[in-house]
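Troubleshooting log. The previous structure file for this entry was overwritten by mistake, so regenerating from the original sequence record. Sequence copied from the archived sheet and checked twice against the printout by T.R.
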Amino acid sequence: MSEEKNMSKVWLITGCSKGFGRVLAEELLATTDALVVATARNPETLKDLEARYGSRLLALPLDVTHRGDVENAVEKTLQRFGRIDVLVNNAGYGLGGTLEECSLEDIRSIFETNVFGLMETTRAVLPTMRAQKSGHILNISSVAGLVSQPGAGMYNATKFAVEGFSESLALDLEVFGIKVTLIEPGPFRTDFASSIHMSPLHPAYAGTLAESIRAYIAAAHGHQAGDPVKAAQIMIQVNNMETPPLRLLLGHHALERWASKSQVQEKEFRQYEALARSADYDVPPDS
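Regenerated output below.
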């Protein structure tokens, strides 16, 4: 077995103060020999893990919307551990409300974190992974990146962007031996709901489907079917696969929502297939 295969993997995880990031860091430290770089805007939230796991954990401040923080986190990781084997782009939050309800400032802000911050962090680790000719990038997306719902269009837009970016990124990086996986959870019993910024309700949308997102979040919080520890274990399992999937839905809710949309979408595409084909020039396809 090569020396590289005997080395403990170095995981760099964003957004570890709570939620998936925190649970994944804990699971890696408790069940594997991984070396973990756990980052958070406030690294004080990680002091208990530092005390428990010592030199296996490096806790760093990181706001993914600040390029200096991103560069510093990557530099400190390389100084301490010498490599980066896995990047988990987990930092992000939700925004509830219709287009008319969400301010442009709030829309720009969620894109800065959920999309541009993810891209900036990915960009920062790529030179190291290319030099290693190996690496795995796990982008925490959502079923909301595949299926939209009323009253959450801005959040949907950020996750749809992550999906498209990651799909292309996987094609770009295959030649360097770097793998990309989109993790697409449904509702999980984390405190994600507490990170959702709800925009003020516009009177025109009162009583509509768009308003239902507010009641749904309040009612579902603490009762979600998804187990975050099992999700973390699955992410670790996926990283150990020789050929990991590009996309991985997590939880029955995510699978059912995707299946329902796929059926409707397929039916609609086929219904208008002749109209779609009529857009080409009136010449035989092979001429």
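The radius of gyration is 21 Å. Archived copy saved in two places this time.
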